[in-house]
Amino acid sequence: MFYEPKDGHGLPHNPFNAIVTPRPIGWISTRGKDGSENLAPYSFFNAVAYVPPQVMFASTSAKDDRDFGKDSATNIRDTGVFCVNIVEYAARDVMNVSSGTYPAEVDEFAKAGIERAECTVIPCSRVANAPASLECRVTQIVQLAGKENRLVIGEVVGVHMRDDCLVDGIFDVTKFNPLTRLGYRDYSVVREVFSLARPDD
Predict the structure, then answer these.
(1) What is the percent of the chain with per-residue pLDDT over 70, rounded to a whole number?
(2) Distance from the CA of 145 to the CA of which of 39, 115, 162, 199 falls in 20 to 30 A?
């Protein structure tokens, strides 16, 4: 099968998200300029550079009560900071609760019963028991093609790692099993890892 997206795919559901998988989930916490808290998962998320360390996520839809897409994008535009919390398999249900479309004043930490902690470098909350959290300062917000498609790039200025996830100096993902996003309503979980040496190692 071949299709051009501009012409549609003719399938019951859009296959694009199912093709580009698995995708890590950035559980983005932000604080509004009014002090309100927000927590939402984004699967258009990844690390993009080592030095300085940088991450990106894309917000791709609008809300009637915001003028800059979703709550996360609005808060980041207004404050210049955000925190990426890594999602473990054990947190799948509360992460899903936080994915709902709620009014701007709703605090997803409270809605889903998620314990929060204050970030160290930036004025923002983080998921207290996350395997890792990345405190970020925005470097760019890029308007992508499409009315509400915005790419947020941030420099990582603080890193939290849960002690039980460090084994002999290595951050061991098998200690918490990262949740990953597939297509449709599907997810997966990382339970096994293997190593490959590069030819020039």
Answers:
(1) 100
(2) 39
